[in-house]
Amino acid sequence: MRDLFDKIYKDKGPLGKWADQAEGYFVFPKLEGPISNRMRFQGREVITWSINDYLGLANKDEIRKVDAEAAAAYGSAYPMGARMMSGHTDLHEQLQDELAQFVDKEAAYLLNFGYQGMVSTIDALVGKDDIIVYDVDAHACIIDGVRLHQGKRYTYRHNDIESIDKNLMRATKMAEKTGGGILLISEGVFGMRGEQGRLKEIVALKEKYNFRLFVDDAHGFGTLGKTGAGTGEEQGIQDQIDVYFATFAKSMASTGAFIAADQEIIDYLKYNLRSQMFAKSLQMQLVIGALKRLDMLRTMPELKEKLWENVNALQNGLRERGFDLGTTQSCVTPVYLKGSIPEAMALVKDLRENHGIFCSIVVYPVIPKGLILLRLIPTASHTMQDIEETLVAFSAIRERLENGTYKKISAAVAAAMGD
């Protein structure tokens, strides 16, 4: 019998193996200062394109005032206990009612965290006889929720309606054998590529198959749709989403999440969501803060207008310079380049050290080998100057990537380390 930890000593994993070179800089970096379009990284001011503060709410004076007053009034502990036992309040109910109204659903229920809530919601919705059909590029929280499922699950090719149709057919045959039902899971906006889920075409398949649709709209809530109610509103099919999920961690610049659906569905879920039944209630300061943020989403359309002014300026500017943004249909702005992981490290270091640009880097195994993805998240707090400086910087780093500068730098570093 081997030691359980043998695998840890021998294999750090596809990302962990780069820890010595990457930690503290490329992964687990420390951004300092108030959350804004410009922050500090390792003592330098950088334009930050990796903060999901879409509407620029995080550091607004009125937001900080409400947060501070709520913390002073209630502390960080109240209410104590799980909501079913001792942690339920009128303000939790008020926030749920206002969220449900905003996303045009009968009812809503608060979740302490988006990731935890997504996992638990999937677990509560399906039993061993049910079948899950989900996008192969689904977020990790969806994948982990599906992993809990004891029944059959099928993945379909990313945003591929033909593949969805094929897998719904397979799921239907299986459900006829087990006597179960079918849950189809899609994201409203896929956070890596920026593509909207093909929700309108998916709900059209309800005429052919009997399934329920669960949508993770973390990146769509607050950014898409006429009122900001999300991808379902944007595509005109919000009423056909059976269970709608969104997080406070992006447009709302806070902590927490919610699900929304018909009243009877929410009544069932709130008595069967293990992650909420056996976890402390969302603290009052976060609930009060979320009420203020939601009010600003509803009453200040200029926030979303400014966001999209910046999104269009950044994305159009990159495309005009010949950059590949894939098929993004959202604020998420992926820039695809070709290169190795060592080249990607040299490129990003150049961006941060010499151009003052901080954005997220994504490499294999998250995306295929030989690709580098630089993901930019425009917000309402960015300026046209930020965008112009970024466009100039990206043109410069592409030239160095293509002329082999980063390959030489990475080879020199490897030689110095004895690799």
Biggest pleated-sheet summary = 7 strands, mixed
Please tell me the CATH architecture of the largest domain by its name.
Answer: 3-Layer(aba) Sandwich
Structural class: alpha/beta
Q: How do the helices and strands follow one another from N- to C-terminus?
A: HHEEEHHEHEHEHEHEHEEHHHHEHEEEHH
Number of strands: 14
The 3D shape can be described as: globular
What is the share of helical residues? 40-55%
Question: How many separate helices?
Answer: 16
Please list the strands of the largest sheet in the order they lie side by side: 4-10-9-8-7-5-6
Look at the structure and give the mean pLDDT. Answer: 94
Q: Quote the CATH topology of the largest domain.
A: Aspartate Aminotransferase, domain 2
Radius of gyration: 23 Å
What is the CATH C-level name of the largest domain?
A: Alpha Beta
Low-confidence stretches: none
N-end to C-end Cα span? 33 Å
Percent strand: 15-25%
The fourth-level CATH homologous superfamily of the largest domain is Type I PLP-dependent aspartate aminotransferase-like (Major domain)
